[in-house]
Amino acid sequence: MEQKRRLRIKPTLFFPFVENALKHGSLNDKESFINITLKETEDRQLSYCLVNSTEHQDDNRFKLKNSGQFGLQALQDLLDAYYPNSNIEHRTLPNKQYLSKLTLNLN
Known about the structure:
By secondary structure, the protein is α+β, with helices and mostly antiparallel strands.
């Protein structure tokens, strides 16, 4: 029987993703959406994936380097301190969608 285990993860890691999806998403559109998926992989990584609708196809809001965006820099600082070897990915998807993905190394 597979044993379930508890993971303790700082919830503030997820706030910047939702905040930016709300801030830059197409919330005035009836078809707007935010989809969030959270799962643990077999190799002890936690994958948090957020896909949201955007108003523009070329949405480049998540540039961390020299962006001046406090929330994302604070997120990177938290990752560096508590979850080394973790990864943040952001990219534009077709059909005015944007993907933000956080992968935490739980080892």
